[in-house]
Design goal:
alpha+beta, five-stranded mixed β-sheet, 9 helices, globular
């Protein structure tokens, strides 16, 4: 892989990035907003986060666990987080999460490139209209701003934690020089995560 590590990051950065991506999602946006309301917070905590503020970080962690806690069963607590970049050619080496929602469509390959190929051939992914992928592909702002979140034991076995739809959209754009921002979490215990 040609993934480049740029600078250290943190779990707080990952959580705020995760929430920012999902608040804009047609699939998860309402769940994020409900979680914000549950804690009596404001969406500014997500849209303008201060990851150096421990109170804000605690609130964002609570928001994420309110609607996505099951997603992190077995997730290790010794993850080292970094910001990095990957090239479009690296996407083929990434695995999807180990979740039926993706596996059924992927013929158990766990390759996100399989989704893009099937969509190009007209297959419909789950209950999602295929135009959602093309809408994301046309939205340059979303592709440029929101990093994908990848996790693994080391850089050559990364699994997509967040950003599956954006990666499919990037593949549909067919821009060979696309550089994709990422937050990358590494832990030797990542295989304890139920979705790894």
């Amino acid at each position: 892989m040609t993934i480049e590590i740029i600078e250290p990051s943190s779990e707080n950065d990952m959580i705020s990035t995760f929430l920012l991506a999902e608040i804009a999602s047609s699939r998860f946006g309402e769940s994020v907003l409900n979680s914000v309301r549950m804690i009596g917070g404001d969406r500014v905590l997500i849209e303008n986060p201060n990851v150096n503020d421990s109170n804000e970080n605690d609130l964002r962690r609570s928001m994420l666990m309110n609607y996505r806690g099951h997603y992190f069963n077995g997730f290790p607590n010794n993850v080292v987080w970094n910001r990095g970049e990957l090239k479009i050619t690296d996407i083929d080496k990434l695995r999807t999460i180990n979740f039926d929602y993706w596996l059924d469509f992927l013929d158990n390959t766990r390759k996100i490139t399989t989704v893009a190929g099937k969509i190009r051939r007209g297959s419909q992914y789950q209950d999602e209209p295929n135009d959602i992928f093309f809408q994301i592909a046309q939205s340059q702002e979303q592709l440029a701003v929101n990093p994908v979140i990848l996790v693994g034991q080391h850089l050559d076995n990364l699994t997509i934690l967040e950003g599956h739809f954006r990666l499919v959209a990037i593949l549909l754009q067919e821009r060979p020089n696309q550089v994709i921002p990422a937050i990358i979490g590494l832990s030797k215990n990542m295989d304890n995560w139920v979705l790894y």
